[in-house]
Amino acid sequence: EEFLVEISGTTVTITCPLSEGNIKWEPILANSVTDERKYVISNHDSSPLNLSCSEGDKKHQMYLKARVCTNCEELDALAVTGIITADLLITCGVLILVYYFSKDRKGRASAGAGSRPRGQKMQRPPPVPNPDYEPIRKGQREVYAGLESRGF
Fold first, then answer.
1. Cis bond leading into 27, ω under 30°?
2. What is the value of pTM for the model shown?
3. What is the pLDDT of residues 107-133, one digit of tens each?
4. What is the number of alpha carbons within 13 Å of residue 3 lying toward its C-beta?
5. I want to staple 49 with a disulfide (CB 3.0 to 4.6 A). Which of 64, 72, 139, 142 is the partner?
6. Pairing of strands 49-55, 24-26
7. How far is CA 38 from CA 25, 28, 59, 70, 89, in A?
8. Model confidence pLDDT, tens digit, residues 44-96
9. The sheet that has 49-55: what strands, in order across it?
10. Which residues have a Cβ under 8 Å from the Cβ of 25 and sit 6 or more positions away?
């Protein structure tokens, strides 16, 4: 046999596991109402509480640590399932759109700077050497024959 605890907003309703009869609840709080098996705490402040219900020599005790809030919305399982399903469908839709738009973009050549046209690769000629720094090769010494070291 267990206590039944129901929370709605800041109201906590506790049902005693004892059968009908003269049930006494302890402690009786200022913001609580007792009605036989039910103990209703309105405007509960989320503070822990030791409660007991007794009828004659039978006594049941419980430790209540219920978190309540004033602006909470109660959602049933169907609403939560619907919200999660809708979120997943929207996310998948966005992913599919991004995939198809990026797929089309890969096939087109971009007109940005530094891009080469696709197709046959053309070989570039080697860079033109600077004649001032041309290397000396065998048989070309006469080009540099006019240069002589200067004496200071």
1. yes
2. 0.47
3. 555 555 555 555 566 788 777 777 676
4. 23
5. 64
6. antiparallel
7. 9, 12, 15, 22, 44
8. 887 888 888 888 888 888 888 888 887 877 788 999 999 999 999 999 999 99
9. 24-26, 49-55, 58-64
10. 16, 32, 34, 39, 51, 52, 53
